[in-house]
């Protein structure tokens, strides 16, 4: 039995960037993760310092020392691992569809 994995891979148009309508359409498909396909975008986002442990702690209301933030240069990716506030499938669990909760990240706008 294979499980569906829905990536959203953005591809920039040289000198233009990512069309906002295209990005929103991709987000409407409920992707499991978002990746960039070019080192330059990853480098620029990394250089801003916006994606960091303090940001995820603030957005997800957890102590910074309880989370794990990792940058994967070879994959042009960032990963934040945060503790569950309630056990899986317990009363109050907001992850009942086995999807991670990315809504707080929608307002993050790295100045690139």
Task: Please characterize this protein's 3D structure.
- The radius of gyration is 15 Å and the shape is globular.
- The model has no long low-confidence stretch (mean pLDDT 76).
- The protein is built from three helices and four strands, in the order E-H-E-H-H-E-E.
- 1% of the residues are buried.
- The chain has a two-stranded parallel ribbon with strand order 1-2. It has a two-stranded antiparallel sheet with strand order 3-4.
- It has one domain.
- It is an alpha+beta fold and 112 residues long.
Secondary structure: elements and pairs:
Elements: E1 7-10, H1 20-27, E2 33-36, H2 39-48, H3 53-60, E3 68-72, E4 77-81
Parallel strand pairs: 1-2
Antiparallel strand pairs: 3-4
Report a brief summary of the structure.
This protein has three helices and four strands.
Keywords:
112 residues; alpha+beta; two-stranded parallel ribbon; two-stranded antiparallel ribbon; 3 helices; 4 strands; 16% strand; globular
Which of globular, elongated, flat, extended, rod-shaped describes the shape? globular
- Mean pLDDT comes to 76
List unreliable stretches of 5+ residues. Answer: none
As for the number of domains, it is 1
Percent strand: 15-25%
Oligomer: single chain
- Helices and strands, in order, run as EHEHHEE
Helix content: 10-25%
What structural class do the secondary elements suggest? alpha+beta
What is the number of helices?
3
Query: Can you list the strand order of the major beta sheet?
Result: 1-2
Largest sheet: 2 strands, parallel
How many DSSP-defined strands? 4
Distance between the termini: 41 Å
Q: Evaluate the radius of gyration.
A: 15 Å
